Amino acid sequence: MPIINRIAEFQNQIKKLRQDLHEYPELQYDVQKTTTRIISELKSYGISNITSGVGRSGVVAVIQGKSNKTGRTIGLRADMDALPLHETTGKPYASKVEGKMHACGHDGHTAMLLAAAKYLQETRNFDGEVVLIFQPAEEGGGGARAMVEDGLMDRWNIEQVYGMHNWPNVPVGAFHMCSGPIMASADRLKIEVEGKGGHAAKPHECVDTIVVMAAIIQAVQTIASRNTDPQKSIVVSLCHVNAGFTDNVIPQTGLIEGTVRTLDPAVRNMAETRLKQIVEGTAAIYGAKASLSYIRDYPVTVNHDDQTKIAAKVAKSISGADKVETDIVASMGSEDFSFMLQERPGAFVFVGNGNSAALHHPDYDFNDELIPIGASYWAKLVEEILPA
User: Fold this and answer.
1) Is 337 buried (19+), middle (13-18) or exposed (0-12) by CB count in 10 A?
2) Among 62, 71, 248, 359, which lies 20 to 30 A Cα-Cα from 353?
3) Spans of all domains in the chain
4) What is 5-182+300-385's CATH topology?
């Protein structure tokens, strides 16, 4: 596997850094220890053009090429935040912060970008500028949106932007990608139901909120089975249901929460419309009331054709054509890198983490064998797009 020799030389140094980050995970925008370490590392590489507090707590650093005749600039993004989980890996470097762990590999993403930064600062074998984007709050906080709204693309004149995520149970170093939608939108829904509470022995005097909720839960699934084109993708998952407080009282109110995932804006619009109709209509049939709160969270992550071809070319130069798939089926998971791809052309790729627990699992750990592979991908991507 032709990774860059210089990057391989300092793999153990970056591995130690990654494991240090893993020990002290931080959530969403509260990433002060992480950003302090990142800034310290960047300065130790000789990088001085560093801005913190972008999008509340993001870090942006700029590396100048040996020349800048074209004035071109590309952005490389890594996320930094962890998840509110209790780690069960038992690793020597397992989380030392109770109830928090790097269960999605963002510590590894940060490490790979730092390794690439070290190499690019040493060699500067490109024409233009590279913008290193260390982003907070990917896990539900919309950190990419916050950075974009803080002027990320315009302040640093970013022309193209690229992202990468490790993927469990794909061979180490294999790259997966596709043009067009690669990850789904993610919307949040909350349904509040109000019936008429009363004694469990006198249901005829009540409007049973539990029965209404059950009917809504069943009816909502027809959005996927009967309202969506069978060749389109949608997931409607109701994941939190709460009503009542004892065994002999019919509750007055109830709550249902869930998520909607789609790959198509038209399907997304239809789902929101039908949810409102089903929720309100079903409740009315039973003589109850129900309201829907629908929050559009992360949009579809859409790769741009030309940039995906570039990403594939670079990936093949590292791992070989047989380990690069360019027409994968899109994931119904979501990514807030989608906000960056709405602003600038670019591509988001998956790189294999080998045999490991799934993302967001308490036994998950980032595979340190990926560090030189991912860092080489970043470095060669820069040298391909911004040739000296």
Assistant:
1) buried
2) 62
3) 5-182+300-385, 186-298
4) Aminopeptidase (3.40.630)
